[in-house]
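Sample log: Glycoside hydrolase family 65 protein.
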Amino acid sequence: MLRSTLSTDEWLLTESGFDVAKANYFETVFTVGNGLLGTRGSLEEGHLGELSGTYLNGVFDSHDSPVIDLVNAPDWLSVAVRVDGVRLDVQSCTVVSHHRALDMRHGILWRETVFEDDEGRRTRLETLRFASMADRRLVGLRVQITPENHTSEVTVDSAIDGRRRNLERLPVYPEGTTFEPEIRWEKWARTKHLVEVGAASELDAIYLQMRTVDSGIHIGYAATTQASKTAIRQSTDRSFERISRTGTYEVGLGETLRIDKLVTVATSRDIDADSTPLRDSCFDALWARRAEGFDACREASSRVWERRWTDSDCEIIGDADATQAMRFNIYHLLIAANGDDNTVSIGAKSLSGEGYRGHVFWDTEILMMPFFTYTQPETARALLHYRHHTLDGARELSRSNGTRGARYAWESADTGREECPQWTQDGANRFWTREEELHVSADVAYAITTYVAATNDTALLLDFGAEIVFETARFWADRVEPAGERYVLKTVIGPDEFHSHVDNNAFTNRMVEWHLGQANTIWSWLKTEHPDRFAEITDAIALTPTEVSRWHDISEWIVEPVVSPEGIIEQFDGYFERDEIPIAEWDRNDMPRYPAGYNHFNCETTKLLKQPDVVMLMYLLPDEFDAEAKRSNFEYYESRTLHKSSLSPAIHAIMGIEVGDFTRALKYFTRSAFVDLHDNQGNTHEGMHAASTGGTWQTLVCGFGGFRVLNGHMSFTPWLPEQWEEIRFRLQWRGSTVRVAVRHNEIELGLDAASGTTEPIMVCGREYTLSSQRDSVIAYSRAEVGIAI
């Protein structure tokens, strides 16, 4: 049985029984991928109400859609099985039993379904699929068909189907309208992004090539199937935008027919696309992988997965459910990023669905990037390079608004141009984020400097990082306005997002101050340490000392926020005068409901927050605020935050631990860790909450593990819930691996590095030195640094 290839139970996420109402949820959480592509966990044969999709990172198109879409690419998965002419699917047959398991350790999805048709024939269908981490161009599917009480003619149709559409605007129905799961998506409009270029067959393989309508990207798939027995009939069937290979087999009672399907994918975006025709590229890769065989390909992928998990696994001893949730979130981070392609990033729904149309937000740099920086630094570098790839688009966006330099889009795709829609789907409400939520440019600079501090990869600054920091600093210098002796930043939206057109948002102003300070530091370092490269960069962008001197002036004189006598930082000018609307109701997940009469678009006059703003600032710049400031601001703003974004609970969990509010911190961790596993927001069918996956990792490592970088050194101030015995994780730090095990009163640290390597660290405010020769066990007490326990 194929199930025997799976890992042990603690690595599995399972489904038992088929429920059409939950099918789209499982399609998201059972996504398999490798960063180049993601394929939702749909049934191979499909069903009414499915929301299937394969998404290729970087393949965007805007044909007949309001803003650009991540294209729902051709379906490689399609396999239909017929037993004496009866199609095996959940609508045509009775489902006697149905089980699936996602093996997160090896990136494999297993499925076993027993169907019974109207003639009483029972047939077991078992499948195993993977997207290769060893060769990102490769995906594979094994299908096993076993007649349990009959001998029959079994026909297997294996297709590449290019007839794919993206979902488009949902018509406006009366509030509360619901539809049966089988027809829900039929009520949506569709966007067509693909046209056929050609199809072919070669030996027992098939090939389909499509092209995106507007962006002109060519996509090629080649597929081959190998059967465990000789077919009595075979054919290649060709129809518009679809090609399939069909085989018919005589299968006896209890006999198992195995079909192995290997598929290779190539696009005109690929590095070698100009030198090798797409069809040849696909077939060359396919023949090589076929010669190795399905099992060898799957095992090669599994070996890469093992290495990924060695660096990134997190374990919570004493809480198996929390460990599973951590691994689930990490799994989805690992399949979302392509470290081999520095022109792509991670969208807000990763490669698991069409939510947010595949666009990239600040979530990537602030919520997801730390995971990669500290566990997969090569991938982090590639993700940062995406921002250089789209730098010209950011320059264009800045020019269009009358400023110099580069301003990163609130929603970015392939070019860096602004892709945020102007209106909600029903046209009733305006999105101002595209014009006013500017802090993303500082967030990108923050991710660059954080990466360099963690890796010592100063070459990134020489290659492209300094150019990004300088060009975005230029934007800020033009965007601020003089006001007497100070500089102000008017008409912005902060991370909170409930309040538009505000002046001097505390988060944005402070991040601009920090950004310009960093730009000055990098300028001086580059000029002193790398004068030749300094000359190349400054000449290329015509950057003068006068401009840099002004950056220093602005960083010194940008207006600071009002601070109340109680130490509360005013979120923006006039925030304290907004209406105090109490939060009085909580949902079944113990999360706040909107007060009666309020929604996302009418909280402008209130003090209600969508997500952390001042609290986020204190998390990002931990050196800048003392313990009392963090505690008072957390208490004030937490009570006014509705958490209407999946990134919000993670930050509140971390800061709750930091200020000693452990009960709420644990609640927020649970909310973040299980947001998709438990479908807490009711929209997991649209795709994963990618920001929450990264936030969950940060909650464990930076919250419970207490990890921060303070004054350039690793620091740990941990805390564990009573029911947890220990947490374990690893961090990559300046070319070495730091192994961390946190227990209730001690932390064990190991440094895997060259002999003689030492690393200064701090634990609860005390200085220690790690040595590669021996592990260190350090007793700790949070009370030593003034934190309540």
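Observation: The chain has three domains: 2-311, 313-704, 727-785.
Observation: Residues 727-785 form one domain.
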